[in-house]
């Protein structure tokens, strides 16, 4: 087995709020959301191949190799750049699928940024983000690596600096279908647009939460349990729910009480992703 020559994190994200403004003609939804990263995530290792093959050596249950966003990102970058190089990739997966914390999108962004360096492409962040958008609406924010107020389908990003508390994230053992939530007839789709300042002052509603709570009692239960200790919120379309704490000790204390019956983790909020901090230290 070849030795990895580059190992990079793929951090989780939270949606600190999520407002849905309307449905577009193409079926996508106009939204406003505030992204923040967590110092917690998957880990990818890369080793360059000379034969042009893209090989992900970690199997993900129910996700065929060629359908994995990591493989799709690598092949798309290879095709668009004209690179003759390939790559071996290993994934250490800790982020849940269907959790609303960006696991697949983050893995794809880490792949794009990692291969940009390994294949010596010298693509700009703008170009990588535009390529990432074709893979998923959340990929660009991971490519750029800065907390941001997002508009459009999530691709129009304005850097922001919300507070960076400690979070307890609970992971109900259910995978929520984003498409199912966004197609629900009871989903709120007419929230008036806001400026970012009211968000930072506490306008933190998630328009998807009522629909997810109604469809997934496991998520509703997690929100109710965490809500006894702090304001509990849904991230994205779930299934993960989170609450902020002023310090790690307090987050750990509540985690110890709740994770006997629920899976969860404690992580620090960060306005610069740990992926970008790692890249800055390396290059």
Architecture overview:
The chain has 283 residues and is α+β, with helices and mostly antiparallel strands. It folds into 2 domains: 6-160, Ribosomal Protein S5, domain 2; 166-270, Alpha-Beta Plaits (2-Layer Sandwich). The chain has helices spanning 69-81, 103-118, 125-133, 139-144, 178-182, 196-200, 209-215, 217-226, 248-258, 274-282; strands spanning 6-23, 29-49, 54-56, 86-92, 148-151, 156-159, 166-171, 233-234, 241-245, 263-270. Strands 1, 2, 3, 4, 5, 6, 7, 8, 9 and 10 form a 10-stranded mixed β-sheet that branches. α1 links the parallel β3 (54-56) and β4 (86-92). It is globular, with a radius of gyration of 19 Å.
Brief account:
The chain is α+β, with helices and mostly antiparallel strands and 283 residues long.
Beta content comes to: 25-35%
Mind telling me the CATH class of the largest domain? Alpha Beta
Indicate the overall shape.
Answer: globular
- CATH topology description of the largest domain: Ribosomal Protein S5, domain 2
Stretches where pLDDT is under 50 for at least 5 consecutive residues are none
Based on the coordinates given, report the CATH architecture of the largest domain: 2-Layer Sandwich
Oligomer: single chain
Number of domains: 2
Radius of gyration: 19 Å
Total number of beta strands = 10
Ends distance: 26 Å
**Mean pLDDT across all residues, rounded?**
93
Helix and strand sequence: EEEHEHHHEEEHHHHEEHEH
Q: Which structural class do you get from the secondary structure elements?
A: alpha+beta
């Amino acid at each position: 087995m070849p030795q990895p020559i580059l190992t990079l994190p793929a951090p989780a994200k939270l949606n600190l709020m999520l407002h849905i403004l309307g449905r577009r003609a193409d079926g996508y939804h106009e939204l406003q959301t505030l992204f923040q990263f967590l110092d917690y995530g998957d880990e990818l290792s890369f080793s360059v191949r000379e034969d042009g093959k893209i090989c992900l050596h970690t199997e993900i249950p129910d996700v065929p190799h060629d359908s994995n966003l990591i493989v799709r990102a690598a092949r798309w970058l290879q095709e668009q750049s004209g690179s003759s190089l390939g790559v071996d990739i290993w994934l250490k997966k800790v982020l849940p699928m269907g959790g609303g914390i960006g696991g697949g999108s983050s893995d794809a962004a880490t792949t794009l940024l990692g291969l940009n360096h390994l294949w010596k492409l010298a693509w700009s962040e703008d170009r990588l983000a535009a390529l990432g958008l074709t893979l998923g609406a959340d990929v660009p924010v991971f490519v750029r690596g800065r907390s941001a107020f997002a508009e459009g389908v999530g691709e129009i990003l304005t850097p922001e600096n919300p507070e960076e508390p400690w979070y307890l994230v609970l992971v109900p053992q259910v995978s929520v279908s984003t498409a199912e939530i966004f197609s629900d007839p009871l989903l709120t789709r007419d929230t008036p647009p806001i400026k970012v300042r009211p968000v930072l002052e506490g306008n933190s509603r998630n328009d998807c939460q009522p629909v997810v709570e109604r469809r997934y009692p496991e998520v509703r239960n997690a929100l109710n349990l965490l809500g006894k200790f702090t304001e509990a919120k849904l991230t994205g379309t779930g299934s993960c729910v989170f609450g902020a704490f002023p310090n790690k000790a307090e987050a750990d204390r509540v985690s110890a009480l709740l994770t006997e019956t629920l899976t969860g983790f404690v992580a620090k909020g960060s306005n610069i992703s740990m992926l970008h901090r790692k890249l800055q230290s390396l290059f």
